[in-house]
Amino acid sequence: MKFSDGYWLGKDNYIINSPIEAYDTEVTDTEISGQNRKDLNVYASYQRLNTRSDMLDVGNSTISLFSPTHDVIGVRIKHFDQQDGNPLYDLAQTPVKTKITRSSDAIKYKSGSLEIEIPLHTNFRMDFKYKGEKITASELKAQASIDDLSGHELGKVMHPNTVTGAQALFKDSDINWADHFMREQLSLLPGTKVYGFGETFGPFEKNGQSIDIINRDGGTGSDQSYKSIPFYLAVQPGIKNIKNGKCYGVFVNESQTTSFEVATEVVDRVSFSTRGESLEYYVIAGDSPKEVIGKYNKLTGGSTLPPEWTFGLWLSTSFTTDYSEKTVMKFIDGMAERDIPLSVFHFDCFWMKGFEWSNFEWDAEKFPDPVGMIKRIHDKGLKVCVWINPYISQKSRLFEIGKENGYFIKKEDGNVWQWDLWQPGNAIVDFTNPDAVEWYQSLLKKLLDMGVDCFKTDFGERIPMHGAVYNNGGNPEGEHNFYTYRYNKAVFDLLKQEKGDGEAVVFARSATVGGQQYPVHWGGDNLSQFHSMADTLRGGLSLMSSGFTFWSHDIGGFEENASPAIYKRWTQFGLLSSHSRYHGNIQYRVPWLFDEEAVEVTRKFSKMKQDLMPYIYKQAAQSVNQGIPLMRPMYMEFPDDSNCSGLDRQYMLGSQILVAPIMEESGVVDYYLPEGEWHHLIDGRDIHVESQGQWLSETYDFLSLPVWQKIQ
């Protein structure tokens, strides 16, 4: 959100107050795991304090500094001491020794090798230094407490470019009426690239973009995101063979909508703001992008290693296709007859009757013997996944049960919050209600007792933000983004309880901070087109830059009919991803319905992934241990090679395998091979390259693509 009118002025109708001078400090103790941690409060006034009279009629910001873990410093900026009712993300705090040093003109707060320095009794600023070198700063007037008077009658006839002029026109009651925002701006060093913000589909480098952190169901080709994460990674690339780059992460600990202006409002800063009277963020420092991402991942709960069988090929019924047990078995047997390894069969929405989603009951006409069918699928060596969501149609037999027991989100008048989007009269399960969680889990347990192995936890983005009442009394703006955390946690916890820690897995579309604890996530509704294949990968690499470890996507694209070329190229990409699933909307995704070569491509690459499984699973376990992605952007593996900073059509699968998916009908692919010794894994001949860092443009048939192994 932009509040400025150029570099010096504020926009009409905003009163912008900024800390001008830090005039006092206070050290406090906080107990973490039985040990005391030293925290620091800094008091900063909104005008210069030259005389005692300057202490009258002036606002303050209280800036609290604290450290949840080594090399991480939290900053909480508070105007008024108000409760906002937003849910709080669970953060893993560990005892850490902090150091506070005060001189006559400055105070320093240090955790590990990360330090914040704030000058006293002069122009306010906060300098962040890692190992003695400045990595970012909050400069004079970067922080702000902002009153938005645009909806007020007086606000329509004034131009409050100065605080004094604005306050002269408004009474205290007017100011209290105003909408209020808190803002911070952190500077970017020259050449710094910004990544992250969750699964965003715009340009991979986020410089120059405005991004709102709010989960929405908008497909994979818009500015909306199923997985919005208020975290960014700032990387100043080094020069090849000279490790002089700098990197750090910024996590904004706000569950309600947070707006980021990434080198837009001020071109050498990242601005972030949220509605309310306080703003909390963390600066995370490290020696490399991997180290920073790992620290953020661990701070927000760490990742969970899915069972090994989940890394194999998943086949879906698709969505609106017509399916029954006969169709399902025909597809499963067809894959086996063509010697195509398969790991999981997924039943999408129409395993239940239409208009009754979700009732969690098999459509008896199409699936008269679900228990027997699941056993027959298990006997073929496959696992079974079924589609679920947290929305209950008014036609579902569960609607009255949920309504009578208060299991749904309500309106302010006490009625159930409903709409007709997706299903008629949809109600939404309220996971802030422990009884509703237990009820929902009991419905899923019946499916697990039938033999179902895991769930596709679809939706969770279209959650009401206004006029909604939750059981816990929370702010619906904050509960909106947090909803997916509660939803996936409820399902994952049940699976752990029933299947055991090592066997729990969901296939989730929506996510928020900490969602990496409940894998796996897939990329949502893409198109069956080459450009959407590129959009999908770009979104996945952005999610992998935001603390997530595993990711998948709909092979062939979800919408539309896929051409044979799209199907075969996407098959290559999908089977060289973390997790691999065929899924579509109106079209079955079995290869023999495209052409015979599609069968050959699917067989070759599914067997290739099977052969690579010892490497993939070892790398997956190492990734979980370090808190880094299995599918990782090139800049993350080669941070000292500036050529890798913008690469978004290739990636590393673990630390040793480079994959460059082909996204052209012609089979032409342009990609970059970083410095080192590489061995080509696909071609039948033995190809070794000693690269000095080179760009390649090559043409491949449907049975090959650039897959290179880095020789250690």
3D structure, described in words:
By secondary structure, the chain is an alpha+beta fold. The chain is built from twelve helices and 41 strands. The strands form ten sheets. The protein has an eight-stranded antiparallel beta sheet. The longest helix is centred in the last third of the chain and has 31 residues, at 596-626.
List the topology elements.
Elements: E1 4-5, E2 9-10, E3 14-17, E4 21-32, E5 35-45, E6 60-69, E7 72-78, E8 98-102, E9 106-111, E10 114-119, E11 126-130, E12 133-138, E13 144-148, H1 163-169, H2 172-177, E14 179-187, E15 193-198, E16 209-213, E17 228-236, E18 246-252, E19 258-262, E20 269-275, E21 278-285, H3 289-299, E22 313-316, H4 325-337, E23 344-347, H5 370-379, E24 383-388, E25 391-392, H6 398-405, E26 410-411, E27 427-428, H7 434-450, E28 454-457, E29 468-469, H8 476-499, E30 521-522, H9 530-544, E31 551-552, E32 554-555, H10 564-574, E33 580-582, H11 596-626, E34 631-632, H12 634-637, E35 651-653, E36 657-659, E37 668-673, E38 676-680, E39 688-691, E40 694-699, E41 707-710
Parallel strand pairs: 22-23, 22-33, 23-24, 24-28, 30-31, 32-33
Antiparallel strand pairs: 1-2, 3-13, 4-5, 5-6, 6-7, 7-21, 8-9, 9-10, 10-11, 11-12, 13-14, 14-20, 15-17, 16-19, 17-18, 18-21, 19-20, 25-27, 26-29, 34-35, 35-36, 36-41, 37-40, 38-39, 38-41
Domain Glycoside hydrolase family 31 N-terminal: 63-261
Family: Belongs to the glycosyl hydrolase 31 family.
EC number: 3.2.1.177
